[in-house]
Amino acid sequence: MVGPNPLNPINIAWLQGLDPIQHYLGWVFYRQGPWTVPLGLSPDFGLDISASIVYVDSIPLLAILFKPFAPILPKTFQYFGIWLWLCFILQAIFAWKLISLITPDRIICLLASGLLLFSPILLYRVGVHSSLVGQFIILWALYLCFKPSKKIPLFWWLALLSIAILVHFYLFIIALGLWFSNIYLHVFSLKTISIKKVFFELTAVLLWIIFLAWQAGYFLMGGSALGAGAYGIGRMNLLAPINSNGWSYVLSSIPNTLAAYESFDFFGLGALFLILVAVPILIKQYIKIGSSLSRQVFLIALMILFTLFAITNQIGFGSLNFTIPIPHWLFSIASILRASARLFWPVFYILILGAIYLLVRFHSKRTALIFLCFGFFMQILDTSAGWWPIRQKITKDSLGVDALTVAIAPLADPFWENAAKQYRNVLVVPAQDPPGKIPYDWSKYATYAAKNKMATNSVYLARVDADKLKSFHQKFETMTTTGQYDPHSLYILGDEKLLPILMHLDSQTDLLARINNINILAPGWKTCSSCPQVPKSNEIMGAIPKTTTTEKILFSNQGIGKNFLVGVGAWPIVGWGWSYPESFGVWSEGDHAKLTIPLPQDASGLLAPVKGIKFEMRALVTPGHPQQQLDLWVNGEYQKTFILKAANDNQIEVSIPKSSKDYVAIELKLPNKIKPQDLGLGSDTRELSVGLIQATWY
């Protein structure tokens, strides 16, 4: 399935793609960072916006385990391959133990365990989400639920829940639910333990788990950050169990059933075969089966709840979708588990185990072996449509150049090496814009920081604390206004920050330059005796065009407004911005566009009092595309939504809030962008929405 290459701890070339790079860099920063209390904090990876080893999915259990040995480990070291190997072994062990509760026959145990080992929901995560390959935690929990016992196996539940909370939160939630079902079984069905005793055990275990969660760094984020992202973003379609999504040679993918990567819950052809064979037995023996399940009423209810949660209130059946409204407070709580399709995993395993149980108990040994043998080989061979390409990719990637070397390659100018000797931090501004969105080029600067043992806020986190992020940006705005920056930090700047910085830059001391096509601000660089000066051609200089209350701001290729456009020609790179100005003005490109405009000055050079600014715009509308929606944001705060239905003479008034800034930052979010070519208006393939003509202060 994986091959031997990932077992080499110094081989990081196989860690390719967004999430594996996140996991590895999270470990690197944690490894070389200081010891903290709680143990799981990683202050250098997420500087000023906070991070812990939990929120980079670097498997806290192993990260904390290996950190004490960091000084003697190789400079390049990864434990994710070892983890995968352990996961496969433990998946097989607990699958065997579960099947052995049904029958002692070793051949049946072998075939059934192999079937569970080749579960698509498990293999699907290989090379993407290493921690979620740890589904042995689910099988372990099911084993503790089904194993006959006169008392709750408290020690084993404690061990299981402790490991789960240090591996992944979703696996912990599943294990926790199964523990509660085991408690219910012993208290109310078997009556082997008193409520009083179980209360004390429950309290002790939960207090220990809360302590572990604190130590791992779970509580670093505020409540609003935990609920980040919409509930149902990774929901399960009702047809997901039979939608192969390329993991079968026999069953075709069902179009429009995969809402997101997380929505994959395919059983596999062999497992589906066994379930279908078991259905007639279930119908025929429902009285006997119902009697044996009567004690597991809590578990059954839990599995129904997990399934409903996985489906969400946005119910999909193939390409058909409808939404059941739920209260906002409930939606916010449910958003903590936004990848809800994962909650179907225990149901997935229970249904397969149930099918195996029915085949073994109600068929002869010979018949059961035939069915299981057929299902086993069918599962392995048919799902190879999905897992064999993963094996090939891992093998190929292991022989290539690692992703971090590729990421840092563009930083070829000697400036970067020299800057690493001068600064302790690498700060990207704006950081995480908007909150929760994967930052563009984050791994480039994170790799640079990791290589030079610097701290950075250039991170990709599972959750982002919006309050801390806002505080960071407010702090930087204050620095911009005063022209005083942290002398220990190298700043990587978005285009929208250049004009405000130029307005107050001490060009005799601080360097504002474009190096390797990256905007940088290096405080104190020009007065640093050991810092090689960069060529003048790299510096970003120039007078800031002034605006007045009496003159129009024209956005044509001859007007001063073109100086205030952020991201001209940037759409092919980042997916948003402005086209190049034309004689009439300028078109937006992509789903949003930004401007940074200095506030007007009077004759004495002081800021003139204004209430707002009025824009004249075009809009790309036709009878077949009758409107353009414009969501307006001012200085980072939402202000108003406009609907433009006319092609010309659209007037948009923007109120300017009072602030200490001497400029205004405006962002237009444009959800109705469309290509003129798609409207039959020639061959223009730009994604256009509005055309900016001119603006006046009022």
Describe the structure.
With 698 residues, this protein is an alpha+beta fold. It folds into 3 domains: 5-78 and 406-538, no CATH class; 80-396, no CATH class; 553-697, Galactose-binding domain-like (Jelly Rolls, Sandwich), CATH 2.60.120. Helices cover 40% and strands 13% of the residues. The protein has 22 helices and 18 strands. The chain has helices at 18-32, 60-66, 80-100, 106-117, 120-123, 136-146, 154-165, 169-189, 195-216, 223-226, 269-284, 286-293, 297-311, 328-334, 345-362, 365-398, 403-408, 414-422, 442-451, 466-482, 498-504, 571-574, and strands spanning 314-317, 320-323, 425-429, 455-456, 489-493, 511-515, 518-522, 553-554, 565-566, 576-578, 586-590, 592-598, 612-619, 628-634, 637-644, 650-655, 663-669, 690-697. Strands 8, 10, 11, 13, 16 and 18 form a 6-stranded antiparallel sheet that branches. A 5-stranded mixed sheet has the order 4-3-5-7-6, covered by helices on one side. A hairpin with a 2-residue loop joins strand 1 and strand 2. Helix 6 (136-146) runs parallel beside helix 8 (169-189). It is globular. The chain starts with 17 loop residues before the first helix and ends with a strand.
Q: Please tell me the overall pLDDT.
A: 94
Protein structure class: alpha+beta
Write down the overall geometry: globular
Number of strands: 18
Can you give me a brief rundown of this structure?
The protein is an alpha+beta fold and 698 residues long. It has 22 helices and 18 strands.
